[in-house]
Amino acid sequence: MQAADTRPKRATQPRPAALPRRAEPDARRQSLIEAAMRVLARAGANGASVRAIAQEAGVSPGLVGHYFTGIDALIAETYTHVDAMVTRALDAAVAAAPPLPRARLEAFVTASFTAPIAQPALLATWIAFWSLVTSQPQIARQHDEQYAGYRARLEGLLREAGVAEADLRHAAIAVTALVDGLWLELCLSPQCFSSEEAGAIARRFLGTVCGGVA
Known about the structure:
Elements: H1 25-43, H2 50-57, H3 61-67, H4 71-96, H5 101-110, H6 120-130, H7 137-160, H8 168-188, H9 195-209
Helix pairs in contact: 1-2, 1-4, 1-6, 2-3, 4-5, 4-7, 5-7, 7-8, 8-9
């Protein structure tokens, strides 16, 4: 038999507690963009300074400079983020619609009358962006690109719904103008009419544009 080991055993040292991880760069960048959205909605473009956005995000102004070259770059990135958010909402509405050309078109158009697109805070953010179109070339380019992208997607859906090729451009411009007007009034004065009424108006107009094609 082996003799019992009588040597004193070393006490097991507890592992040090894990240090809290610093926010990942992408998460920190995203938090600054979301803070910029809130500041733009609340204070407009004139109130959207590096200091104000840093305070909203709970970080130092220097950290904003670490991720963005300046306030113009941050606002431009925020504009891109907001447009992507709207695009995702439109894509989700089309994906959830019945697989019929007219139903997909109507889903794309009427999605602008419900959340997350139709809400006063988002309108206030857009107004801040629009106020910079005439003074910020980058914002002007983004506005043109985003409008062209929306119209191109709408033209494709109108084509699938039976609108003649020669009429597509004017039809897309007309539908976009109708959607923008209804969306604006819904956000400014939601008590005037409901999202359901806005949808009904839009669908009736689409009926005339598509010539009764289902």
